[in-house]
Amino acid sequence: QVQLVESGGGLGQAGDSLRLSCAASGASYRFFLMGWYRQAPGKQRELVAQVNAGRVANYADSVKGRFNIYRDNDKNTVHLQMDSLKPEDTAVYYCYAQSSYSGSTFWGQGTQVTVSS
Q1: Which has more pLDDT, 80 or 74?
Q2: CA 5/CA 107 separation, integer angstroms
Q3: 3-state helix, strand, coil in the chain (%, to 5)
Q4: Higher confidence at residue 27 or residue 5?
Q5: Running DSSP on this structure, what letter comes out for residue 116?
Q6: For residues 53 and 113, what is the distance between their CA atoms, to the nearest angstrom?
Q7: Is-contact 69 78, C-beta < 8 A?
Q8: Quick one: pLDDT at residue 95?
Q9: Strand order in the sheet with 77-82
Q10: In this structure, which of 15, 16, 30, 36 has its CB flanked by the most CB atoms within 10 Å?
Q11: 50-64 pLDDT, tens per residue?
């Protein structure tokens, strides 16, 4: 059974940096895609960033230039380095991993990021 465990969330002020990490366990294969969604109260869940097995990444326009996603393929971990945080980054961040082997997408339980002004 695949499990994704997130860490690194917390409270910061505008302009601060945080790094989110997500560790996948229970899979003996490399995930095709890993990334992060976020959901703020009253808003839809949105894709923040994703990276494929070839380490090609894409970002939401709202975070481009501020966030960086990177992964360790051998360990099936993915990180989201968040710099120049803004209050509008406040959300629950969810790690996900997509497997072409099983055809499944797996989700973490979410980690809260709160940015004060």
Answers
A1: 80
A2: 9
A3: 5, 55, 45
A4: 5
A5: E
A6: 26
A7: yes
A8: 97
A9: 3-7, 18-25, 77-82, 67-72
A10: 36
A11: 999 888 999 999 999
